[in-house]
Specification:
The protein contains twelve helices and 19 strands. The chain is of the alpha+beta class. The protein folds into three domains: 76 residues, RNA polymerase II/Efflux pump adaptor protein, barrel-sandwich hybrid domain (OB fold (Dihydrolipoamide Acetyltransferase, E2P)); 71 residues, Dihydrolipoamide Transferase (Irregular), CATH 4.10.320; 221 residues, Chloramphenicol Acetyltransferase. Strands 9, 12, 15, 16, 17, 18 and 19 form a seven-stranded mixed β-sheet that branches. A four-stranded antiparallel β-sheet has the order 1-8-6-3, with no helix packed on it. A four-stranded antiparallel β-sheet has the order 5-4-2-7, with no helix packed on it. The longest helix has 18 residues. It is elongated. The protein starts with a strand and ends with a helix.
Length: 446
């Protein structure tokens, strides 16, 4: 009995996604709740589980296709056994069949048949017939340096899959392999060409310069996540009256505190004591003095929050994601560090949920982990401010009349000037600076 596999609910207000990758092939056995495909939405990647145990018999959409919530993308046969789905014919069988029914050049593009001896001019003429490659296949083609026009696709409607590219690359690397022999044949003179007097070869021309190497270009459609990031950031620039104020902070006290207590902290809480805990607590303290930084605009009203939900910018393989640490003002250092570490881990795995990235009243972005010295971060709407952290480096500063080296960090606060005045922005940043340079303030609420 065939069971339909439907696109699951993807979160509030999300009605469709993109099928990023098939995790199972037709004919393969699947267990109940085992992921068979991954979907990419505006915010997260979601795995599609098999509703039953059985064999994947059909893939109804291809990688890169858009699919709506509730759409059927595959079918599972509960009664079939692995390998029951008919595999696509091998390259030799397909070539033989094509030669029997249609002689070369009779209405079929040789490049799409996988015929390495196809005339170059004909292949170029039929470039527009080559099936569009999915992002995963494009990356594989670029990584393995293979010609996609010379690979027979085994996917739906003859589409190339990532496995096709890898198999072709492995065959090409083996001496005497069919792929290698095909390339040699494409370069050799045609054996059946009629004999004729050889034309007089033109005099050799001297080339003034040779190419410095192959030059490649790749066109990849923007992922839904990348499109959403681009749209929201541009909306922020077009809507908010953004301004950035800067300050620098001496990190000596925080570094000393971490060095003194890191072992005890990790032993007790099972997590390392990082810098983010200090900055989240410092922002929570500063927001009490300057509540407009933790507010938002809705129409002609200002919405003030008596809680601090901190959006923490985290780098993921497919772009920047911003999960939310909720009620950060009421959390301990250990709770903050555990929450951020968990978000970072699951961002790399692509397992963050939509709810975990929804909301947030204030954002902290740490470009310092990538080596950034200074930046002007962009507000994450509908929030009104974002704090940018940067790398720590020793710089000469004056202390008690003496020039000394101190581990310094630049801080940047971008804010919406429609809601936050310059005085308030500067005051907020100074409060953060004071708390970081004297962490005791975090304990006694100063």
């Amino acid at each position: 009995m065939a069971i339909d596999v439907e696109v699951p609910a993807l979160g509030e207000s999300i009605t469709e996604g993109t099928l990023a990758q098939w995790l199972k092939k037709p004919g393969e056995a699947v267990a109940a709740d085992e992921p068979i495909a991954s979907l990419e939405t505006d915010k997260v990647s979601v795995e599609v589980p098999s509703p039953v145990a059985g064999v994947l018999t059909e893939q109804l959409v291809g990688e890169g296709d858009s699919v709506a919530v509730g759409a059927v993308i595959a079918r599972i046969d509960q009664n079939a056994t692995a390998g029951a789905a008919a595999p696509s014919p091998g390259p030799a069988a397909e070539t033989a069949a094509a030669a029997t029914t249609n002689p070369p050049g009779a209405g079929e593009t040789p490049a799409l048949r996988g015929d390495d001896t196809a005339p170059v001019a004909q292949a170029e003429h039929d470039d527009d017939q080559i099936t569009t490659l999915s992002p995963a296949v494009r990356r594989a083609v670029l990584e393995y340096h293979v010609d996609p026009t010379k690979i027979r696709g085994t996917g739906k409607d003859g589409r190339l899959t990532k496995d096709d590219v890898i198999a072709a690359a492995q065959g090409k690397a083996q001496p005497g392999s069919p792929a290698q022999a095909g390339e040699a044949g494409a370069q050799a003179p045609q054996a059946k060409a009629p004999s004729a007097p050889a034309p007089t070869a033109p005099a050799p021309q001297t080339r003034l310069a040779s190419p410095a190497g192959d030059r490649h270009e790749e066109r990849v459609k923007m992922s839904r996540l990348r499109q959403t990031i681009a749209r929201r950031l541009k909306e922020a620039q077009n809507t908010a009256a953004m301004l950035t104020t800067f300050n620098d902070v001496d990190m000596s006290a925080v570094i000393d505190a971490r060095a003194r207590y890191k072992d005890l902290f990790e032993k007790k809480h099972g997590i390392r004591l990082g810098f983010m805990g200090f900055f989240v607590k410092a922002c929570a303290l500063a927001a009490k003095d300057v509540p407009s930084v933790n507010a938002s605009l809705e129409g002609d009203e200002i919405v003030y929050h008596d809680y601090l939900d901190v959006s923490v910018a985290v780098s993921a393989p497919k772009g920047l994601v911003v999960p939310v640490v909720r009620n950060a003002d009421r959390m301990s250092f250990a709770e903050i560090e555990k929450g951020i570490a968990d978000f970072g881990k699951r961002a790399k795995e692509g397992t963050l949920t939509v709810d975990e990235m929804t909301g947030g009243t204030f954002t902290i972005s740490n470009g310092g982990v990538f080596g950034s010295l200074l930046s002007t971060p962009i507000i994450n709407p509908p929030q009104s401010a974002v704090l940018g952290m940067h790398r720590i480096e020793e710089r000469p500063v004056v202390k008690d009349g003496q020039i000394v080296a101190r581990p310094m960090m630049y801080l940047a606060l971008s804010y919406d000037h429609r809601l936050i005045d310059g005085r308030e922005a500067v005051t907020f940043l100074v409060r953060v600076k004071e708390a970081i340079e004297d962490p005791t303030r975090l304990l006694i609420d100063l």
